[in-house]
Amino acid sequence: MVRREVVGAHYGLRDWLAQRITAVIMLVYSAVILSVISALPRMDYWQWKVLWQTPVVRYATVILIASLLFHAWVGVRNIYMDYIKDPALRLALYVLTIGALLYYAVWSIKILWSA
Amino acid sequence: MSRPRPKYLNLLQIRLPVPGLVSILHRVSGAVLFLFIPFLLVLLELTLDSPAGFQRFKSVLSHWAVKLLVIGLVWAYLHHLLAGIRHMMLDLDYGTELPAARAASMAVLVTGIALTVIFAVMLW
After folding, report:
1. Long-range contacts made by residues B31-37, C-beta under 8 angstroms, separation at least 24?
2. Does residue A8 fall inside a structural domain?
3. Domains of chain B
4. Residue in A23, A48, A114 nearest the CB of B54
5. Which end of chain B is least crowded, N or C, by CB within 10 Å?
6. Touching check for A99 and chain B: CB below 8 Å?
7. What ipTM is given for this predicted complex?
8. Which range marks the domain in which residue A46 is found?
9. Rounded mean pLDDT of B84-102?
10. Is residue B27 less than 8 Å (CB to CB) from chain A?
C-alpha cells in the first residue's frame, strides 16, 4: 500500500520570506528616490533625464523592478489560489500573469537604458 | 442547544472588523497596483522620451480624470505599504493583542487616507 501524506509543495516559507524581503527593498527604494526627486534643484526634462541616467539610480531601479515583479507574482498567485477553483482557468491566468510580468521586465529595462 | 450555522455568508451582511477591512483592502490595493503597472510604465516612458514627451506628460496629468486615477493609485500604494509594514510588525510579534491590533489597523487606514488627501491637495 502506498502511504500518501499531504505535505504541500514546500514553497510557502520561501515565498513568505521573499515577499517580505522584496517589500523592504521597495520601501527603502521608495524613500530614497522620493527624497532624491524632491531634492532636485529644478524639475525639467534634462534634470529628470540625468537622474535616470545616473548608474546608481539605474541599477537600483533594476533591483526594484525585480523585487516588484516577484512580489506581484506571489501576491497575484495567492489571489488566484483563493478565488479561482477551475484548474484550467487558473493555469491560464498563471501563464498570462507570468507572461505579462516578463514583458514588463523587458519593457522597463528598455525604458531605463534608452533614457 | 445548537445555533444555526453558518451564521452569515452574505458579504453584504458581514460587519467586517477594522483589521479585516485593512486586510481585504491590502489585497484589493495590491491587485489594483498590479493591474496598473503598464499605465505607470507608459507614463515613465513618456517623461523620458523627449522634452516634448515630458510636456505631454504634464498636459496628460492636468486632466481631472487622470488626476483622479493617480490619486486612487497613490492611495492604493500608501495603503498597501502601510498595511505591509503592519504585517511585518505582526510577524515580529508586535501588536498581536486585540486592542493593539485594532488600533494599528485604524492607524493604517487613517494614515493612508490622510496622506492621500495631502497628496491630492498638492496635485490639484
Report:
1. B31/A75, B31/A76, B31/A79, B32/B72, B32/B73, B32/B76, B33/A72, B33/B73, B33/B76, B33/B77, B33/B80, B34/A72, B34/A75, B34/A76, B36/B73, B37/A68, B37/A72, B37/A104
2. no
3. 18-123 (1.20.1300.10)
4. A48
5. N
6. no
7. 0.89
8. 13-114
9. 92
10. yes
